[in-house]
Design goal:
Structural class: alpha+beta
Shape: flat
Helix content: 55-70%
Number of strands: 8
Radius of gyration: 41 Å
Distance between the termini: 31 Å
């Protein structure tokens, strides 16, 4: 099961014990029942047979317990050696395994208080994207749509049902005769040809829709992944701030006790430290929310964590060709909708053409009939054949014309949607490029000037406060400025990466 991709250890254990329950119990039960007469024997030689049978039966029962309960628990313990997990208490784990395996006589106890599982899967960005493309329900739905259109293509050449009928009665004379009739209606061959072409276009449209869903899912997973990385880095910065302000609060409290400062300075320092702790709690909630969003995109119930611990600057090659977005899957999809509507128009035009009818009749004739000057008597066993060929022409073509006009309007709608989306993508690309240059300029400022100065301010502020050269208020102001620079840098880097992701999505990079 592990090789087949079942990553959850508890799922493997529960399924394995459920599958092996009956074979293990049957093997032990057969041997135990076989030794039961020996264990209960009181005849001659029973003093030797009974201990032997008791030992064998006891060994089988203990081996069954070890196989179904202890072995799975040991498997979990050794399998989890490289992951952070709080293992269930052995008794609760054993009860859970047996309950899922089908042992109904065991009492069901509450395991919530003693079972805490925190098995976390660490994923890289590439792994997260691959897992999302494999498991996401939206991707599966788009893939099913392709299969649906391929199946519907087989119904493109759909000849109408063949009509079979029997007529009984006085068809030719007072005698009762019968007639067998077969008729078939065919549409004009162009209809079937156009319907096949329409089915092929719909298959292409569903494939483009699949590509659009893939592109959007990749962008959403990447964005959610970097959001987790962003809040994780923000947490590190907040923890460093917490350390600085906690040290400041301790120093202010000590100075207040010695009378070197007043209560206002002590309260201000403590309040700033509490404020940072509140920010840390808020950021922890943001991390959980981002991870849950990532789990939703991956369609996973496992605890997810990201492998990247440091937010890095994404590199992107900006487009130089103004027609770069012409290959965007959404534009191809909308253009394909126009082609689909064109084929719909061709189908409606073809349906206006005449239909063909073909029929065959076989009937009996009773009575006397003059054949070549000779009266000849016919019975019910004498059969006569006839063939029928006809053409069905629409006398009132208004309905067909309305459907053709409606199909042409759908063509115009599809063309307008394509033009709008093309204009919209060009506009979005220009806006994103401006945002990209703005964030890039901000990053250059932080990397070359602001960040080094922020580190310098923090070091000098801490030294100056310890030496008494700076007051608590000056120390707080200096730390606030420096830490704001660091926070703004992380936010600028995050927004820069998000702008690059959006540009990649616009130009169709997966």
């Amino acid at each position: 099961m592990k090789a087949e991709g079942i990553s959850d250890i508890y799922e493997r254990v529960l399924k394995g014990t459920s599958v092996r329950l009956r074979p293990v119990l049957m093997t032990a039960a057969v041997a135990s029942l076989g030794f039961l007469p020996m264990a209960l024997s009181s005849s001659s030689g029973a003093e030797v047979q009974r201990p032997l049978a008791t030992v064998v039966i006891g060994g089988l029962l203990s081996a069954t317990f070890l196989t179904l309960v202890v072995l799975p628990v040991l498997y979990i313990l050794f399998e989890k050696k490289n992951k952070k997990v709080i293992i269930m208490k052995p008794l609760n784990m054993a009860l859970l395994i047996l309950c899922f395996a089908g042992v109904s006589f065991l009492p069901l106890v509450s395991l919530a208080q003693n079972t805490t599982v925190d098995a976390t899967r660490v994923l890289t960005l590439q792994q997260a994207v691959a897992e999302a493309l494999k498991n996401n329900s939206n991707i599966k739905s788009a893939n099913y749509l392709i299969d649906l259109q391929k199946v519907l293509r087989r119904s493109a050449v759909n000849i109408e049902k063949t009509n079979f009928s029997i007529t009984q009665g006085q068809l030719n004379s007072v005698h009762y005769d019968n007639s067998f009739n077969i008729t078939q209606r065919f549409e004009y061959p162009t209809v079937y040809k156009n319907q096949l072409e329409l089915a092929d276009e719909k298959i292409k449209g569903s494939e483009y829709q699949f590509a659009v869903n893939q592109l959007n899912l990749t962008a959403n997973v990447t964005s959610a992944y970097y959001q987790v990385v962003y809040f994780t880095n923000k947490e590190k910065l907040l923890l460093s701030q917490d350390t600085l302000y906690a040290n400041l609060a301790k120093a202010s409290a000590a100075r207040y006790r010695t009378g070197e400062t007043n209560l206002l300075e002590k309260a201000t320092s403590e309040m700033q430290s509490l404020e940072v702790k509140n920010w840390i709690q808020q950021n922890e909630s943001d991390i959980l929310i981002a991870k849950k969003q990532l789990k939703i995109l991956l369609n996973s119930r496992d605890n997810i964590s990201v492998a990247d611990s440091v937010i890095t600057k994404r590199n992107i090659e900006l487009p130089t060709d103004s027609n770069i977005i012409a290959s965007h899957p959404m534009l191809k999809y909308l253009q394909q909708q126009f082609e689909i509507n064109k084929k719909e128009t061709d189908v409606q035009k073809a349906k206006r053409l005449p239909d063909f009818l073909a029929g065959y009749t076989n009937q009996s004739f009773r009575g006397i009939q003059n054949v070549n000057g000779t009266n000849q008597k016919f019975t019910g066993w004498d059969r006569f054949n006839s063939f029928q060929i006809g053409v069905a022409i629409p006398l009132l073509p208004g309905g067909y014309k309305s459907k053709i006009n409606a199909a042409k309007i759908n063509e115009q709608i599809a063309a307008a949607n394509w033009e709008y989306e093309q204009t919209n993508l060009y506009g979005q690309l220009n806006i994103l490029l401006e945002q990209y240059y703005k964030h890039k300029s901000a990053l250059a400022y932080y990397e070359t000037a602001a960040l080094p100065q922020a580190d310098l301010i923090i070091n000098n502020a801490v030294k100056g406060f310890k030496s008494g050269e700076l007051s608590s208020q000056q120390h707080l102001q200096s730390l606030a400025i420096a830490l704001k620079i660091k926070t703004d840098y992380i936010e600028a880097l995050y927004h820069y990466n998000q702008s690059t992701l959006a540009i990649e999505n616009i130009i169709g990079i997966k």
